[in-house]
Amino acid sequence: MTMQEYNMLQEEHDDEDFLQRYRMQRIEEMRRQLCRGKRFAQVYELKNGEDFLEALDKEDKSTLVMIHIYEPEVPGCEAMSGSLMCLAQEYPLVKFCSVRSSAISTSSMFRDSALPALLVYKGGDLIGNFVRLTDQLGEDFFAVDIEALLQEYGLLPEKPPSVSTTIRNGAIVQTTQSDDDSDLDID
């Protein structure tokens, strides 16, 4: 082996080390970004109008807050509740809440004709208002239907990348996955 060949091999090895360090640094950077925002990952039940206002006023101005107004006996409200529980897991930086319309003193006419309703706020401002969602989605719908509707109006942030850990040959390997191949896309 000549000295030139030896130097080239050494440079390739250095490049591999650099790439490995860069990958690990990027993974750590992405982890920090995920942890930066407050994480909710659940649906909060609001008890009254005061809770409703606090859910909006006490959050950071960049936090997206979605409030489902419901009554248990109204068709579609149960499907919306289940859908939001799923979406809360997929969008942990979004604050999902639900409140009975009777708890915030809405009129009986509103209860009969507008539920289920979904209000979307950011910075305390109403940016999305969906009433009687059963007119668009029917009485039995799923999280993907609500997700598609909200994405259509640009009301959902991008999903955070998931970092998975696997074990290969006794070594822990971390990989970053993105869900670019959405089930919502038409191929």
From TrEMBL:
<feature type="compositionally biased region" description="Acidic residues">
    <location>
        <begin position="178"/>
        <end position="187"/>
    </location>
</feature>
<feature type="compositionally biased region" description="Polar residues">
    <location>
        <begin position="166"/>
        <end position="177"/>
    </location>
</feature>
<dbReference type="GO" id="GO:0005737">
    <property type="term" value="C:cytoplasm"/>
</dbReference>
<dbReference type="InterPro" id="IPR024253">
    <property type="entry name" value="Phosducin_thioredoxin-like_dom"/>
</dbReference>
<feature type="region of interest" description="Disordered">
    <location>
        <begin position="166"/>
        <end position="187"/>
    </location>
</feature>
<dbReference type="Pfam" id="PF02114">
    <property type="entry name" value="Phosducin"/>
</dbReference>
<feature type="domain" description="Phosducin">
    <location>
        <begin position="1"/>
        <end position="179"/>
    </location>
</feature>
<dbReference type="InterPro" id="IPR036249">
    <property type="entry name" value="Thioredoxin-like_sf"/>
</dbReference>
<protein>
    <recommendedName>
        <fullName>Phosducin domain-containing protein</fullName>
    </recommendedName>
</protein>
<comment type="similarity">
    <text>Belongs to the phosducin family.</text>
</comment>
<dbReference type="InterPro" id="IPR001200">
    <property type="entry name" value="Phosducin"/>
</dbReference>
<dbReference type="InterPro" id="IPR051499">
    <property type="entry name" value="Phosducin-like_reg"/>
</dbReference>
<dbReference type="GO" id="GO:1902605">
    <property type="term" value="P:heterotrimeric G-protein complex assembly"/>
</dbReference>
<dbReference type="GO" id="GO:0008277">
    <property type="term" value="P:regulation of G protein-coupled receptor signaling pathway"/>
</dbReference>
